[in-house]
Amino acid sequence: MRSIGTCYSEHAIKVSDSNCSGPSNHAYLSPNFTLSIQDTVSFIYKVKLSTQKHLLITLTWWNKLIFEGLNINIDDSISSSSRNSAGSVHQLQEIKGTSTFQSCNSKIEIFWGVSAACLDAGPEPIRGFYVVVLVDSELGLVLGDIDNEEISTKCLKKKSAPLRQTLIGFSK
């Protein structure tokens, strides 16, 4: 007579083998299994300009298998949420660059660089990057490491009111 442990052991192997598409020494991933890897993260900043104008700047960092990027949305409606924002989304896909556009009746200039960015567990860099947003030539948002001489000269040496930016939201 076999022991109860042997019976359970044989049954467990049969169940395992019946669910595998290959030999039992290969891992099997169910087609219904979804990985919970974070591929986007959004940060919402409230910015108060010297003109007393308030803006919401939403930065969404994303990572889709083979490509990383940054979306930026600028909105002047403080009551709007990041998902239902009236502003237009601008996708920044290069590792370094500048972009100029009109939004909220203002000239928006964005300077960014992620060529030396270090990532942790998510798509947002933790160091080695910068994002600078000018609104009508006034400094609106500064994030990251500003050691780029060109950016420092153009953006940070201008006389402007003290920077008033506040992180008000975070979404994964």
From TrEMBL:
Matching Pfam families: DUF868
Q: Which domain of life is it from?
A: Eukaryota
Write down what this protein is called: Uncharacterized protein
Name the species this protein comes from.
Answer: Populus trichocarpa
